[in-house]
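Second opinion, please. Please look over this fold, written as tokens:

===
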Amino acid sequence: MDKKATWDRFYTENGSKGQFKNFEWFFGFHSVKDFILPVLGTMSHSHHGPFNILDMGCGTSALGPCIYRASPCAVKVTCADISPVAVRLMEKHTNSASEQPCNPSSALAFLELDCTHLRGHFGTRSLDMILDKGTTDALVRSKEGQAKAGQILRQCLQVLKPSGILLQFSDEDTDARLVWLEREVRGAELTADVGVREVGELRGVSYFCYEISPCTNPHS
């Protein structure tokens, strides 16, 4: 599941079924909006200009477009995926829908991007929020993918602003994910705080929101 060809094939097959339908890994925006919008609201007290948000490994999820539509704060949402097929489908659907944002200063863009190359596209300390809904979960299920997931996490810390946050939505048990996150963070150039909140149970599966933010007061 860490191969580009796998996802190109997946989205090509889904896109050939006729009318476009968003594919949601785990759940949709409404299940996690209370984990996202309040964070933006808190940040807005000391923030000028739109929030730069990255939906990393977006696929054809409506998560990014929903934030664009629902956020009362101005946001610049970039939905990035390794699959050009997914990116084209999302661009086509969004252009045809012509939906307007809650804040007229908000913007929405789609980007073909291998997220192991975040640093090649986004500048250091340039993003306010990164969303990862299932991307890390797909990667850590293979040995090669685990190394990529660690690489992506470390790059996230580099491109996040000091006040920024990475939200990982996952069905992985806290005992396993927290150990992995803390190990990978220790190997990063920048230190980070790691926390977790429970999203809840959906269709018999428990989901969690792992919160990773650059340390403002790292220990010496």
